[in-house]
Amino acid sequence: MAGLKCFKSYDIRGRVGEDLNEDIAYRIGRAFVRVMSPGSVVLGRDIRDSSPMLQAAIARGVSDEGADVLDIGLCGTEEVYFATDHLGAGGGLMVTASHNPIGDNGVKLIGPGATPISREGGLGEMEALVAEGAFGPGAGRAGVFRQVDVRTAYVARVLSFLDLSGLSSATVLVNAGNGTAGPTFDAIAEGLAAAGAPLAFVRLHHEPDGSFPNGIPNPLLPENRPVTSEAVRAHGADMGVAWDGDFDRCFLFDETGAFVDGEYIVGLLAAAMLARSPGEKVVHDPRVMWNTRRIVAEAGGEAVVSRTGHALIKETMRRVDAAYGGEMSAHHYFRDFMYCDSGMIPWLLVLAHMASTGQPLSALVAEMRARHPSSGEINFRLADPEAAVAAIEAEFAQGADIDGLDGLSAAFPDWRFNLRRSNTEPVVRLNVETLGDAELLAEKTAALTAALQRFQ
Length: 456
Hints:
Helix content: 25-40%
Structural class: alpha/beta
Largest sheet: 6 strands, mixed
Number of strands: 20
CATH architecture of the largest domain: 3-Layer(aba) Sandwich
């Protein structure tokens, strides 16, 4: 089984029946235990039709290697993060393909204390074991299988991030995209109601359904946003929230139905976190960052830049003990949530921030957009990415402040750009931002786009 295509930089993903099947899943369970020596392993799964089969195979592999299985059932990835830490397990495995095509599935791997597992930290060794497949007989003692319910404790942790008495009356439109968010959201809504929070919710595409009758939930794609935008306007909601399949990312819409770009959510959450914990550090990625750095400085915090990617952001946050970390791709990380990303905590914090400022979401975002307009991420599939990046540096970065932390970042006094290769896809990603100059943004974005298109 040489050359496993399903093992990626951070996790395991592939076409079911081609790259990933029941036998490979069984081997993943055995390899995980052999490498991590976890004692007990939390298992969760998303709503995809193949997920129960893959989860059961992983459970057999874990048990055959002598580790106990703690099954939390249908859930979001962040619930496996939480359960791994909360139950003191030696690791966790989440069967999910998140927003990948319907025929895909995958596994996210979690270390003790909900720490990420890198290729150097065990994922590469697991891949070699799975490829070889020479496990031999199982352990002398088979692990015990137990179903465990941690949702009540998880909801309590999520709600601990805000002062519920400070919330204002609001109507929120929530779009679960027929992924796993629905049941978990309902538990959070029940907790909010029990605490007397003055919130009303309108649910859209709420029932988990592995056939995804309304399309794969990925609100990052512009073509997937109108259904949420229109529902926000139709119901007169104060805010809209949409999640991807395993709800480790959430996407926000203001009361006009306008989509709020990820970098501005990072700024809002940085402000919200620093209001409750002044002087803390905030970690951000380098793709679009001027708005975040301004807000953090004005709030008396310290901004720390990190390479893009969940394992790298978490590593940086732990190293500097940051209270919050955010990526423009809608991943938001919290120290008090095991330094992990959550798709449920952010929208609650934004609601609380709206209540504390007395401003609607559109007004909060309008100021940031005016002061720091950005291009949004533009993707290019290029025949020779390295040559393209080198050409862009030679043509556009002369006299700039160059930073090679994550791709090519070039900053001038009034504009900057970041050009980087994706960790997970064969694309180059461009982001451009300026200091309050929409015309300059359009000019530079057009010039960089034209230059990159020459390499397509």
